[in-house]
Design brief:
The complex is a heterodimer of chains A (513) and B (246).
Chain A (H helix, E strand, L loop, with lengths): L1 H25 L13 E17 L11 E17 L3 E20 L5 E4 L10 E14 L2 E8 L31 E9 L3 E9 L1 E5 L2 E5 L8 H4 L13 E11 L2 E11 L8 E12 L2 E11 L5 E2 L7 H9 L1 H4 L3 E2 L8 E12 L5 E9 L5 H20 L34 E12 L3 E10 L5 E12 L2 E11 L7 E3 L2 E3 L1 H4 L2 E12 L1
Antiparallel strand pairs in A: 1-2, 1-25, 2-3, 3-4, 3-5, 5-6, 6-7, 7-8, 8-11, 9-10, 11-12, 12-13, 13-14, 14-17, 15-16, 17-18, 18-19, 19-20, 20-21, 21-22, 22-25, 23-24
Helix pairs in contact in A: 3-5
Chain B lengths: L1 H13 L1 H6 L7 H12 L3 E11 L5 E11 L3 E8 L7 E5 L2 E6 L4 E5 L12 H5 L3 H4 E7 L6 E8 L8 E7 L5 E7 L5 E13 L2 E11 L6 E10 L17
Antiparallel strand pairs in B: 1-2, 1-13, 2-3, 3-4, 4-5, 5-6, 7-8, 8-9, 9-10, 10-11, 11-12, 12-13
């Protein structure tokens, strides 16, 4: 209800203030139309309860301390749409999420797991997730303005959208799970066969329980935690934003999107960065075929200095050398002139009874090669060894994790966070609905093609009633071929080895209203 | 050209008494197709309809939708019920179809022959009622149904809903009575029964279409039109991809 109140307070004055002007411009288009109701509204939503289990495995790179073996996620979602004839609309998609985790395991410096007490985990605190909250005003038959939080996805990719640089990332094993968008202003000029969109998005820099308090620029004051020295003060004097100009056209029955991005420290380390995206989507018989690509210069990812990761002594020596300390792990190829890309290409087949098979290949041009990933893994294992050499009570040097995105706002809690370390991936989804009328069978394959590791996620959904669905799923890890993995620290690593958890299982009960 | 197309249904209606009074001279296929389109897919309309899918375990699922049509090439549908599909939308623009998924927050391309919400209609049955553009035909008689004309149709575009159709049209009022829908090889896919003729603001049409799935004979779907306004003039901006979800 708090989200609804905020929604009304912020958006209602905006929409009412512009309604009269919009009505005039729409009137020509609505000639002879029956008088529309002044206000149309619709509300929907769901209550979802999802107990989950995951097997935290020994020997991984990432810390396991805050990953519970047992998790209960409860999400109460409501979606409210208000529409004022042809003048404009307002929309809210908000969830109140409660999460509880039990049974934590601590990773020791020797890589062994030991039981840890249940404890407070910031990522598991209750949150209000405002996935979307925006108002849209029609400025004329071919112009509209959107303000608020909105998910803007232009690319046709199902598992991934390489041309989407503004929204929180989605889970390729369940793309429908991510509904959250970006805080933005959008001016759009839609026509029957083409659309021009101008978007300016501000990065969420501070947010508490899902409610943002700083967008685009940091506030003047530090957080309580930073002021007390518990965490570093991450403020800077920069503006964190992304802008985009997008042209959509329907050409020869093909959806064509061309996007130019200009961003500064928005979800990655790039400053004043230009990027270009292009996507195509067309139906051929029962197949929808698409390609979605992004091109840029340089890489925003972090790379380890190979001279510092050979062993603990080399790492400590680099750490003590002011000239090399910052290069141990840095975005050293950020200004690299070489062009890198991300390309997703695939197709989706739909059968007569809505059976569906989607096959997509993803080339991640920002992925690390074997040598680069080897250095990162050596850095992680060596840093762990170096900690064991420190005297009791000494503070180890802080080395940020090379893995994980710079997205401050993860959006809707995801079942799985996909972090593509390498360059070649395959996503396959097969779905058969209407099995014995009420069951939907689905299997998703996510595979890294360099070491053949990944996961298969079979699931079954039972539509108990028109308003109730029960789902059971298990994520089966594919360990990959060890000989194709990357050598570091005396062993070979596949991408699955880097993950903190391998087997996962969950059931979900979702009640719609 | 546009004017002559718009006049075609009118001419067909004006010629009805002559057609009915002269059994030796059946109407032309073009006349019957134009009449079918004028009844089942008038140039522009807004409607509220329900599709009930009866499944092979004797249970059923009902979907309620709002439909908006403008001209022969633009079509939009909003699913209102049940709650599990509320927010889904469909858009047709010429030969192109999109399905808006609220959880994906975007429209995805789909084929015209995909099943309509898992029922026994396909997308083109509902979103593409433009038989004059999609089919060539011949007119004949069926001794078993002497009160009807038998229209044998063959698709002239791959985007048409079916490769072949047999359509029975009432001689008295030119209302569709029954349909059979085939693959190119002649395999019967579905049959339809049209009934419960009502008048909506001057438009007289069957409000109930019963579609039986001949590949899964225990399944059938019923489409019932509850409300229909053929006098609306919806703005073109409601039929563009970027309007989906609004």
């Amino acid at each position: 209800m708090g989200g609804a109140l905020l929604f009304w307070c912020v958006l209602a004055p905006l929409l009412w203030g512009t309604a009269a002007r919009a009505q005039e411009t729409e009137s020509a288009d609505m000639e002879q139309a029956a008088p529309a109701p002044l206000l149309e509204s619709s509300a929907t939503g769901f209550l979802d309860v999802r107990p989950a289990w995951q097997h935290v495995h020994e020997g991984g790179i990432a810390t396991t301390d805050d990953i519970p073996a047992w998790l209960l996620v409860t999400e109460a979602n409501f979606q409210l749409r208000l529409r004022w004839g042809g003048r404009g609309m307002a929309y809210a998609d908000a969830s109140f999420v409660g999460q509880n985790g039990w049974t934590f395991l601590h990773t020791g410096d020797d890589g062994k797991l030991s039981e840890a007490a249940d404890h407070d985990v910031a990522a598991l605190r209750p949150a209000a997730v405002l996935s979307e909250l925006y108002g849209l005003v029609h400025l004329g038959p071919h112009a509209n303005l959107t303000l608020g939080r909105k998910r803007v996805v232009w690319g046709p990719g199902l598992a991934q959208n390489p041309t989407d640089l503004v929204d929180p990332p989605k889970d390729p094993t369940d793309p429908t799970c991510q509904r959250a968008g970006a805080w933005l202003a959008r001016l759009e000029f839609p026509f029957e066969r083409f659309t021009v969109s101008l978007v300016a998005a501000a990065k969420v820099l501070r947010q508490y329980s899902g409610v943002p308090t700083a967008l685009g620029v940091y506030p003047d004051h530090a957080t309580t935690e930073a002021a007390s020295g518990a965490v570093p003060d991450d403020r800077d004097g920069s503006s964190h934003y992304a802008t985009a100009v997008r042209l959509y056209a329907l050409v020869v029955d093909t959806d064509v999107n061309a996007v130019w991005y200009f961003s500064n420290l928005y979800n990655d380390a790039f400053e004043d960065k230009h990027r270009f995206g292009l996507s195509l989507s067309r139906v051929f018989g029962a197949w929808e075929v698409h390609v979605e690509a992004l091109a840029q210069r340089g890489s925003s990812r972090r790379y380890a200095d190979s001279g510092c990761v050979a062993d603990a002594a080399a790492l400590m020596q680099c750490g003590l050398d002011p000239a090399r300390r910052d290069r141990v792990l840095s975005a050293s190829k950020r200004d690299d002139p070489g062009v890198r890309g991300r390309v997703l290409a695939g197709g989706r087949w739909t059968g007569a009874d809505n059976e569906m098979v989607s096959i997509e290949y993803y080339w991640n041009g920002e992925g690390w090669d074997a040598s680069e990933l080897g250095d990162l893994l050596r850095l992680a294992t060596t840093a762990r060894q170096a900690r064991s050499f420190l005297p009791p009570g000494a503070t180890p040097p802080s080395i940020p994790s090379p893995f994980g995105s710079a997205t401050a706002d993860p959006g809707t809690p995801q079942k799985f966070v996909f972090e593509p370390l390498r360059r070649h991936y395959l996503f396959v989804t097969a779905m058969v609905p209407n099995v014995r009328n009420d069951f939907t069978l689905q299997a998703v394959l996510l595979a890294g093609l360099e070491d053949l590791s990944g996961q298969v996620v079979p699931s079954v959904a039972w539509s108990v009633r028109e308003w109730a669905t029960l789902t059971a799923a298990v994520a089966v890890p594919l360990p990959g071929v060890s000989s194709l993995g990357v050598e570091a620290g005396g062993r070979r690593w596949t991408e699955s080895d880097v993950m903190p958890a391998d087997w996962r299982a969950w059931v979900s009960a979702r009640l719609f209203y | 050209m546009k004017t002559s197309t718009q006049l075609l249904p009118l001419l067909s209606i004006l010629s009805l008494p002559l057609v009915s009074a002269a059994p030796a001279a059946p109407p032309t296929p073009a006349e019957l197709l134009a009449k079918y389109d004028a009844i089942m897919g008038p140039p522009s309309y807004e409607a509220v309809a329900r599709m009930t899918a009866h499944r092979d375990d004797d249970t059923e699922r009902t979907y309620k939708m709002r439909i908006l049509k403008s001209g022969t090439e633009r079509f939009r549908a909003w699913f209102l019920e049940p709650a599990s599909v509320r927010g889904q939308e469909m858009l047709r623009q010429g030969d192109n179809f999109w399905l808006y998924m609220p959880n994906l927050k975007r429209g995805v391309r789909m084929a015209s022959r995909d099943s309509f919400q898992g029922g026994d209609f396909n997308n083109a049955d509902v979103l593409r009622v433009n038989y004059a553009a999609d089919y060539d035909g011949t007119v004949g008689e069926d001794a078993a149904m002497p009160a009807t004309w038998l229209l044998e149709l063959k698709a002239k575009t791959p985007e048409a809903a079916y490769d072949r159709i047999r359509l029975w049209i009432g001689r008295a009022d030119l209302m569709p009575v029954k349909g059979e829908y085939y693959t190119e090889s002649g395999k019967l896919l579905r049959t339809a029964e049209f009934s419960e003729v009502k008048t909506f603001k001057g438009l007289k049409r069957p409000t109930k279409v019963l579609m039986r799935n001949q590949l899964a004979v225990k399944r059938w779907s019923v489409m019932i039109v509850d409300e229909l306004d053929p006098k609306v003039n919806p703005p073109a901006s409601r039929f563009v991809v970027d309007d989906l979800g609004r």
